[in-house]
Specification:
This protein is mainly alpha-helical and 710 residues long. Helix content is 55%, strand content 6%. The strands form 3 sheets. Strands 3-4-5-9-6 form a 5-stranded mixed beta sheet.
Length: 710
C-alpha cells in the first residue's frame, strides 16, 4: 500500500533556505556511490527543501499519469504503478527523516515544519483522489478473475484497504475535514516530539561534591565528569534525564535525594506548564483522533486503528492485557515486599538518618534496592558484567547469531558516506557472497538525537520492472554509553538486549524478498512487527552465544562460567517490575484511545484514573507517562503499545520451537523462521506464524519465561 507521510511540526514558519540548482542537488541527482547508498557527505541543509519540492512534483506527475491512462485499469498499470510511484520522495524522505531523528537541530526542525504540511497535502491528494480510487476499486472488484499470485492478490487488497481506510469512500465534505485533521495531526506530532527533546536537553543537574555520589561506579562518574567539563563546569559531575546518565544513579547511588531528583526529572518531562508542555498537545491530538475515527463510523480511535492488526478490536486487546496484567502485578507486589524489607534494614541500621525518615519504598528506590537484592540473591553485580559487554563485541555477537542461523556474513565498510562520524557501515551478504543489504549503526547519544533506540529503512527492498532486486539499506540507532577517556563503550544488560532487539528489526528489513515496496520488510501489522526483534533478544544471554562475544575489554578473557550461571539464574529476577511497568503503559495507551470524547480531558487526572483502575502499586511509575509518551503521540504506535507483549507471546513460542529441537541453531527451524522474515507483509501475519510453528502460539511459554508459572 502507498506510504502515507504524516510527520509534522509545531508551526508553519518562514524558512530562509537558499535554493540549489536541481542538477547539483545530491538528493535529486544521486551521485555514483558504492551500493547506491545516499551521498550523506554531500548533502547540505539547503538541499532538503528543493529536493522535497521536486520529489513531490514528480510523485504528483506519476499519479497523474496513472489517473490519465486511457486504458482500462489493470493490476500493472494501476496497482503496480502506484506502488512504484514516488521513488524520489522515498529516497529524499529516507535521508531527511533519518537524519532529523538521529542528528537533528533547529534548522532541520524548521525544514520539517515546512515539509510536513506539504507531505500531508500530497498524501491526501493521492488517497482522496476519486479518479485514482475508481481505478483501484475496478481492479479490486475484478481481482478474483485476474489470475494473480498470492503476493499480487495481497497487494491489490492492501492497496484498496489503504484507500478505503484513509477516506476514499467518504463523502466530499468529510474528505475535506479529513484533510484538515491529517494536516493538524502531523503538526502536533512533531511539536510533541520537539517538546520532549527540548525538555530532555534543558534539564542539567550539576553535582559539586563527590561525596554525594557515594556508591556510583567510577565509569559512571567519569562519564558525568566529562559531560560537566564539556558543559563548562570542570571539576563537577553532570546528570541529565537521558537514560545513559540517570540509570546508573538509580541503580547504585546511595544519595536518595539525587535518585528522586533524576527520576522525577525524567518522568515529568513536558509536564511543567511551560512552553514545552505537552498536555494541550495531547488533548488536541485526542480530539482530532476521536473525530477522525468517528468520520469512519468507529466510536473510538482504538477500533479504527486496530482493524488492520492481528487483534482486530479493543475488546481483544483489553482481554489480552488483563490476562497478563494480573500475574505480572502479583509478582511485582511480591518483589516490592522484598525490596521494602531491604529498605527497612537500612533504616534500622541508621543508614538513612538524613533522608527525612521516609520509610516507604518509592519509585526512585526500586532500581537501587533491586540491584542490592540481585547481589544478595545471585551474587550478580551489573558493574561486574559491563567489562564483558564492550559495544563492538556485543554487536559482533549479534552478527554471529545471524551467521549461525541464516548464514549471513558481515563486512565493515570504511570511507562510506555517513551523516555523522560516529556512524558505521556494514555490507551484509549471503554465504556465497551475494548482497543481502547495507546496515548502518549509530549508537551514541547526542543533543540532536531523540531518546530511545530504533530501526529505520533508508532505502527499502523491492523488485523493479526489469526484475532487478534492489537490496535494502537499513539503520540501527541507539543511545548507549559513549566511550570515555579511560573506557570503551560498556553496555548494561538492558543495553545488550536493546542492541539485539533492534538488530532483529534490521534482519526483518535486510532479509526481505518481496516484489513490492509497500509489502516489503517491516510493512506488517504492528502487533506482528515486534516478533523478529524480540525473538533475537532470546539469544543474547544463552551460554553458547555469550562465549562468542562476552570478552573482558582489558584482558580478553571470555566471560567465566560462574558469571554465565549467575546471569541465567537471575534471568527471571525483577520480571514483575519489568512487566508491570511495560503493561501499565500499554493499558494507559488503550485507555486514551478508547475515549469517545476528549471534552473536559485533564491529562494528569486521566492518567491517575487509569492507574487507579488497574490497581497500579505506588512503588512503580508507568514506563511512559503521557507527556513524553513518544510511541503513541509521535511515532505511530497509538493503540499499539500492547503489541510488544502480544509479540512477546509469539517470540517466546518461536524460541521454544528451537529449544524443542535441542539445538538453538537448528537448521530446519531456522530455515522456516527465515522464510517468515523474508515474507514481510506479503502474507497474512497469522497465516505466516502458523506455517512456521504448525500451531497457535502458546502464551504459557511467555509466562514460563518470565517466571510466573513453572
Amino acid at each position: 500500500m502507498k506510504k502515507i507521510f504524516l510527520l509534522g511540526a509545531f508551526a508553519m514558519s518562514l524558512l530562509a533556505c537558499s535554493k540549489t540548482g536541481n542538477e547539483s542537488n545530491p538528493l535529486i541527482n544521486q551521485p555514483d556511490t558504492q551500493f547506491g547508498v545516499p551521498a550523506f557527505d554531500q548533502v547540505k541543509l539547503e538541499h532538503y527543501l528543493p529536493a522535497f519540492e521536486e520529489a513531490i512534483r514528480q510523485d504528483k506527475a506519476e499519479i497523474d499519469a496513472i489517473v490519465n491512462n486511457g486504458e482500462e485499469p489493470t493490476f500493472e498499470n494501476t496497482i503496480v504503478a502506484l506502488d512504484r510511484a514516488g521513488s524520489l520522495l522515498d529516497r529524499v524522505s529516507g535521508v531527511f527523516f533519518n537524519v532529523l531523528e538521529a542528528d537533528g537541530n533547529d534548522d532541520m526542525n524548521a525544514i520539517a515544519e515546512k515539509v510536513s504540511p506539504m507531505l500531508s497535502e500530497l498524501s491526501d491528494g493521492i488517497i482522496l483522489n476519486d479518479s485514482l480510487f475508481k481505478r483501484v476499486k475496478f481492479v479490486y472488484d475484478q481481482r478474483e478473475q485476474l489470475g494473480l499470485n498470492p503476493e499480487q492478490m495481497r497487494l491489490v487488497t492492501e492497496t484498496y484497504k489503504s484507500f478505503a481506510d484513509n477516506g476514499a469512500n467518504l463523502p466530499e465534505d468529510k474528505k475535506e475535514r479529513l484533510k484538515e485533521i491529517n494536516r493538524e495531526l502531523g503538526l502536533l506530532s512533531l511539536k510533541f516530539g520537539n517538546n520532549v527533546v527540548a525538555e530532555t536537553n534543558a534539564c542539567q543537574i550539576f553535582i559539586k561534591d563527590e561525596a554525594e555520589l557515594k556508591g556510583l561506579p567510577e565509569s559512571a562518574k567519569a562519564a558525568a565528569a566529562e559531560e560537566a567539563e564539556a558543559a563548562g563546569h570542570p571539576g563537577e559531575w553532570l546528570f541529565t534525564p537521558k537514560r545513559t546518565s540517570f540509570t546508573p544513579v538509580l541503580q547504585y547511588c546511595e544519595n536518595r535525594e539525587l535518585r528522586k531528583q533524576l527520576l522525577l526529572a525524567y518522568t515529568t518531562r513536558a509536564n511543567h506548564d511551560n512552553e514545552n508542555d505537552n498536555k494541550a498537545v495531547i488533548i488536541r491530538e485526542m480530539e482530532l483522533r476521536i473525530e477522525k475515527a468517528q468520520l469512519f463510523g468507529y466510536t473510538n480511535p482504538a477500533d479504527y486503528i486496530l482493524a488492520d492488526c492481528m487483534a482486530k478490536n479493543h475488546r481483544t486487546v483489553d482481554a489480552f492485557l488483563a490476562s497478563v496484567w494480573a500475574p505480572s502485578l502479583e509478582a511485582a507486589k511480591r518483589e516490592a515486599a522484598e525490596l521494602q524489607a531491604l529498605l527497612d534494614e537500612d533504616l534500622k541500621n541508621g543508614q538513612m538518618v538524613n533522608e527525612k525518615m521516609d520509610k516507604c519504598l518509592r519509585p526512585w528506590d526500586w532500581w537501587f534496592y533491586a540491584e542490592k537484592l540481585r547481589k544478595a540473591k545471585y551474587a550478580l553485580d551489573e558493574e561486574e558484567l559491563k567489562p564483558y559487554f564492550e559495544l563492538n563485541n556485543v554487536r559482533k555477537g549479534a552478527f554471529g547469531v545471524a551467521t549461525r542461523l541464516y548464514g549471513l556474513q558481515f563486512e565493515q565498510l570504511n570511507d562510506m558516506p555517513v551523516y555523522n562520524p560516529e556512524v558505521e557501515v556494514f555490507k551484509v551478504t549471503e554465504a556465497d557472497g551475494s548482497l543481502v543489504g547495507i546496515l548502518y549503526t549509530d549508537y551514541f547519544p547526542r543533543a540532536g538525537k531523540r531518546p530511545g533506540a530504533w530501526m529505520n529503512n533508508i532505502m527499502s527492498q523491492y523488485v523493479d520492472a526489469e526484475g532487478v532486486d534492489h537490496r535494502p539499506v537499513i539503520i540501527n540507532v541507539g543511545n548507549f554509553n559513549k566511550p570515555t577517556a579511560g573506557n570503551p563503550s560498556l553496555l548494561s544488560m538492558d543495553d545488550v538486549e536493546t542492541l539485539f532487539h533492534e538488530f532483529g528489526h534490521a534482519l526483518h528489513g535486510l532479509l526481505s524478498k518481496a516484489h513490492y515496496k509497500s509489502l516489503s520488510g517491516t510493512n506488517t501489522p504492528r502487533d506482528f512487527v515486534e516478533l523478529p526483534s524480540q525473538f533475537m533478544e532470546n539469544y543474547a544471554y544463552e551460554p553458547e552465544v555469550l562465549k562468542t562475544y562476552a570478552f573482558h575489554y582489558q584482558t580478553g578473557e571470555v566471560i567465566p562460567d560462574e558469571l554465565i550461571a549467575k546471569i541465567n539464574a537471575a534471568g527471571k529476577f525483577n520480571q514483575g517490575f519489568v512487566q508491570t511497568e511495560l503493561l501499565s503503559a500499554a493499558i494507559l495507551d488503550m485507555d486514551f484511545h478508547e475515549l469517545e470524547t476528549a471534552q473536559g480531558l485533564d491529562v494528569n487526572a486521566f492518567e491517575q484514573q487509569s492507574l487507579d483502575k488497574m490497581n497500579m502499586i505506588p512503588q512503580i511509575i508507568v514506563r511512559y507517562r503521557p507527556t513524553f509518551y513518544n510511541h503513541i503521540f509521535t511515532t505511530g504506535y497509538e493503540a499499539g503499545y500492547y503489541s510488544y507483549t502480544w509479540a512477546a507471546v509469539l517470540d517466546a513460542d518461536a524460541f521454544a520451537a528451537f529449544k524443542e529441537t535441542g539445538n538453538l541453531f537448528d537448521g530446519e527451524t531456522a530455515r522456516r523462521f527465515r522464510h517468515l522474515l523474508e515474507q514481510g507483509g506479503t502474507r497474512d501475519a497469522q497465516e505466516l506464524y502458523l506455517e512456521f510453528r504448525g500451531k497457535e502460539a502458546d502464551p504459557k511459554n511467555l509466562l514460563r519465561r518470565n517466571g510466573f508459572i513453572d
